[in-house]
Amino acid sequence: MSYPAESSLHSHHVKPPIRNLVISGTFSASLKVFPRSRTSSLHLVPHQHTMDLPKLLANQSVTEHHPPQFDIPPAILSHILIYAIETNFFDFYSPTGSFSEASYIGQVCRYWRDVSLATPELWSILSLRLDNRGCWHSNVADRLQMHIDHSRNALLSVRIETDAVLDERYLLAPFRKVLGRLSSLMLRTKKKVELDKVVQKYLSVAQHLTLLSAGDRIKVKVNGLKQSSSISLLLYSSFLDSTRLANYSCFLARTHITYLHLKCFPRTALELLKDCPSVIEAHFVLPPHGFPGTEPPTLTRTSPGHSIIPLLLTLTLEVINASLPGYDFPFPALAHFLNSFTAPSLISLFFLSDANQNPHSIYPPPNTEFLSALSNLIYRSSAQITRARIEGIPITTYELVPVLKALYRVRELTLGEAKGKRNKLVTTSLLALLAGRALPYSGKFISPVTSCKLTVPRSACSGLEGPEA
Q1: What is the pLDDT of residues 196-221, one digit of tens each?
Q2: Which of 55, 196, 283, 309 has its CA 20 to 30 A from that of 115?
Q3: In angstroms, rounded to a whole number, what is the distance separating the alpha carbons of residues 331 and 354?
Q4: How far is CA 33 from the centre of its chain?
């Protein structure tokens, strides 16, 4: 079926490019187009109430300043409406709780309805609230089917919420005939479910899979060849180990993974880095040293299984729960991890922690091995790092200087104090080093950084004296 506005949408006979566009009615928007850079910016604000369009158009003084909606070219209006749609919601518990933003657009005027019906993307964003019994109200199911029909060949983005563990017979029942168009699938449940099995079952269905279950979060994105390209896996109550990782059969084809975000043990993180030669960005949430399952530190500079991660650009290591009792030395286990690989393309390096600055943590050897391994990694990686962030690591200026000397090309630096009253990181000598001034240290000095952010408590600034402070 063809709609009046559809031929104009696909026609090249459109009015000259609009530089500034203001729309009045159900939505207020401003669109700016920059032909030289071929970019545009859109600002869209929905009104709290629906305006009376016939009365508005009848007011000549208003229409002189605000052009009628049907004066907007169909291609421009269609593009704006796509940004206006957030979701179309279907509540199978309560039919009165359902709403369709795509249908609301069609109520503005007949012209807008024609354009909305000729824009399949408006009908392809769907949110469902289901139960586990499959007791659906027929009118809700009919409206959902109408949206699926209007979406035609557009890729579907589906979000499903449930208070129970869904039976697979009902989960994707409305989409059985259009599974090939399912691009994004988000499942949210309040009860704990076996995410391993769910991932294996539904990853082959959607290119973008997100699972949220009782504090756990799994996000997987795959490319057109159904191979993983992005993985975000954060388990609320546990760290991912190598044994459980093997249960995710969908992760076995790891050669195409480009993004990693996992809550895991250092050994698991190292295994994934070695198995993912195409990884570009990695963010690992790690337990402190001494946590059950962490391996003991290794003092060798290069381990037997040393690997090269050629494409890694950004590495973030986040040590959590380091402030809990019993973890006074949270970082030695990372020495083995840092000594086990080289990243020649690395340009951004971030180390984050919630550790406390206590009397034990500011003296060697707790951090010496870790910092030495960090400096060695930077030198092995050709010292190309231009962005660095070190926050919550209980170290002193004396311990930090070798790391900063290795980061002599850094341009954006963020330093954050660890918690506690014994902060000795930000000192006059450190500020002088950041300014590129001569200090009684041998070797290279970092050039003046162009962007530096220091996060310190008020008590740490009392000892800073002189012009350097």
Answers
A1: 677 667 767 777 878 777 677 778 77
A2: 55
A3: 12
A4: 28
Task: Give first-to-last CA distance, the chain, whole Å.
Answer: 73
What is the CATH number for 458? 3.80.10
CB crowding 440-469: b at 16 or more within 10 Å, else e: eeeeebbeebeeeebeeeeebeeeeeeeee
Which structural domain, as residue segments, surrounds residue 441?
Answer: 258-469
Q: How confident is the model at residue 302 (pLDDT cuts 50, 70, 90)?
A: very low
Residue 172 lies in a domain: no
Sequence-distant (≥ 6) Cβ neighbours of residue 357 within 8 angstroms: 394, 417, 418, 419, 420, 421, 422, 423, 424
pLDDT at 84 over 80: yes
Place of tokens 């290795």: 406
Q: What is the pLDDT of residues 398-422, one digit of tens each?
A: 777 788 888 888 888 887 777 766 5
The phi and psi torsions of 264 (rounded to 5 degrees) equal -155, 175
Q: Are strands 88-91 and 39-46 parallel, antiparallel or unpaired?
A: unpaired
Length of the chain: 469
pLDDT tier at 2, thresholds 50, 70, 90: low
Token pair, residue 412, equals 């954006």
391 sits in which H/E element: strand 387-391
Average pLDDT, whole number, for the chain? 70
Residue 275 is assigned to a structural domain of this protein: yes
For 155-210, give the DSSP string: PEEEEEEESSPPPHHHHTGGGGGGGGGEEEEEEEESS---HHHHHHHHTTT-SEEE
- How far apart are the C-alpha atoms of 267 and 277, rounded to whole Å? 17
Encode pLDDT of 4-31 as tens digits: 555 555 544 433 333 334 443 344 444 3
Phi, psi for residue 270 in degrees, rounded to 5: -65, -40
Instruction: Report if residue 30 sits inside a domain.
Output: no
In total, how many domains does the chain have? Answer: 1
Whether residue 327 is contained in a domain is answered as yes
Q: What is the pTM of this model?
A: 0.66
The answer to whether residue 113 scores a pLDDT higher than 80 is yes
